[in-house]
Amino acid sequence: MIEKSPYKSLSEWREINPHLFMRAYRKGWLDDLCDNFGWVRFKQRKKWTFENVFNDALKFPTKTKWVENGYHSYVAAQRYGWIDECSKHMVLLKKPNSYWTKERCIVDALLYPTKSEWRKNSSAYTKAKRNGWFDECTEHMKILGRKQKPAGFWNIKKNVFSEVEKHPTIANWKEKSFGSYQSATRNNWLEEILNLYGWALSKPPITENECFKSALKYERRGEWLENDPSYYYAAKKLKCYDKCTKHMTRTHK
After folding, report:
1. N or C: which end of the chain has fewer CB within 10 A?
2. Parent domain of 120
3. For residue 55, is it within any domain?
4. Structure confidence by residue, pLDDT tens digits, 19-46
């Protein structure tokens, strides 16, 4: 017969009473407790097979992109020694050092309207910087950047609202058209826009206490990174990472 517990789940017990939870975890009692109270054990982390890792790696043209956008499969490839085999296609796509001549950099730069777009999408950006070709390559970007709105344009409400319609999120609007965003804030139109589009302002900065509470939900560092990355990286930034992960099994730095 299943006994009744004051806690609805194993996760709830871990959050409310982390010290007892960790004692039970170290003693190996969790399975018995789950059986006794009808709790369900935590979902196991995804098991990376060679096929899964290989297929994930095929999505990325370089190892840098793979690390940035497919971190977990990259770590699995490192762990099992699959990096070379899974990244063969990346070597084929990589441009040789002699490829980016001045002429090719100029032509490549013409594909992008801004310096930031060029930097994000092409290694020619770095080559042009190193060789002193950067100003010549980005001349067309300066011309495009001179297309400014007339004075007072963003002080007209309909102009701001028309601009807002072009953007899918508040973050995109703020990044792409900061002048109209500033005007909306200055003229007290922001709340109306947020209500109209169902947007919300950015959350307040994460605190050290919130990081600690988040970390207590997980047994391993890698598990914390996978499920609550914002708190994981906030802890590193706030320099409370060691304190937050003291109870965890060391599977990820």
Report:
1. N
2. 102-145
3. yes
4. 777 777 767 787 788 878 887 765 545 6
